[in-house]
Design brief:
Blueprint: H1 5-33, H2 47-66, H3 75-89, H4 103-139, H5 143-156, H6 161-177, H7 181-201, H8 206-218, H9 222-235, H10 240-252, H11 256-269, H12 280-283
């Protein structure tokens, strides 16, 4: 549902209903035709019955397991269940459905879909190739190369948010590694523009929102950064790392009490070590004692 939406969910539901319904009808048909008039001592033997019971049992196990896992994201599992659903969809060996005029069209549908997917894949290949080069170069800290590759990727495909995100990451890394403010600022501004292009395509990516807010902090645009952090937290209020990143921002702008509250919220939501996100100089700084009140 998350990946394919309501239409995809309805389609998958119909797919299941049709195949399970056909499998059940085939099961009852085998019982009536092949095993309905057996003598008392005659053994019940039916390859069709064995296949359909096995297929129905496999689908039942898959449905139960899918409540807590994502089995069909694994290509091997998907191919296995394509075979199993094919067993459920196939007619009995002694059934000869009447041919229809649409049958050739249905037979051509899957090959045509495969050809279409192949053509679409080829058109996206150049952008994906440059994106992968940009990702590897960024991983290896070859930042100038990463920027060049990412710019080639977005030149071939502007609608992929990951292309813009990696361009922003490379620009931000160049800004952080620059020695002077004059060298840092153009890189941070370019990173902000790339992150905003990524969010224009998919505005709910908390990772991009955090990187955008951090870059805004580097530029001294603290009010914008605070707003960006709050947007990320609103999208996922129970994600601990977002509260930790926000705490770092609050410490940076001097809102110490709020920063400690945000970090406490982060530690409540997760048992992982979140001190790696927040500067320990902020976290471990002693609190200032209250000023004594002097009598007039």
């Amino acid at each position: 549902m998350a990946e394919y939406g309501i239409i995809g969910g309805v389609g998958m539901g119909l797919f299941l209903l049709v195949h399970l319904g056909h499998g059940w009808r085939r099961f009852t048909s085998v019982l009536k035709r092949d095993l309905g008039d057996l003598d008392y001592y005659e053994p019940a033997r039916s390859d069709d019955l064995a296949l359909v019971i096995g297929a129905l049992s496999a689908v039942a196990a898959y449905l139960a397991h899918s409540v807590v896992d994502f089995n069909l994201h694994i290509p091997g599992n998907a191919l296995t269940f394509a075979f199993i659903f094919g067993i459920l969809a196939s007619p009995r060996s002694d059934e000869k459905p009447a041919p229809t005029r649409l049958e050739p069209l249905f037979r051509l549908a899957v090959p045509a879909l495969g050809v279409w997917m192949l053509l679409v894949g080829f058109t996206k290949y150049p952008a994906e190739r440059w994106y992968e080069k940009a990702r590897v170069a960024l991983r290896d800290r070859r930042l100038t190369e990463s920027v060049a590759y990412a710019e080639k990727a977005v030149a071939h495909g502007t609608r992929n948010p990951e292309f813009w995100f990696h361009l922003g990451e490379a620009r931000r890394a160049l800004g952080l590694s620059a020695m002077t403010t004059a060298d840092r600022q153009p890189q941070f501004l370019a990173a902000v523009a790339a992150y905003e292009r990524s969010l224009a395509i998919f505005p709910y990516d908390e990772h991009v929102l955090v990187r955008l807010a951090q870059t805004q902090d580097e530029l001294g645009r603290f009010a914008e950064a605070s707003k960006t952090y709050r947007i990320a937290i609103d999208h996922d209020p129970n994600l601990a790392v977002l509260h930790a990143y926000y705490a770092q921002h609050l410490f940076r702008v001097g809102r110490t009490d709020e920063a400690h509250e945000s970090f406490a919220r982060a530690t409540q939501l997760s048992s992982q070590n979140l001190r790696r996100i927040v500067d320990p100089d902020f976290l471990d700084a002693p609190s200032e004692p209250p000023h004594p009140v002097t009598a007039p």
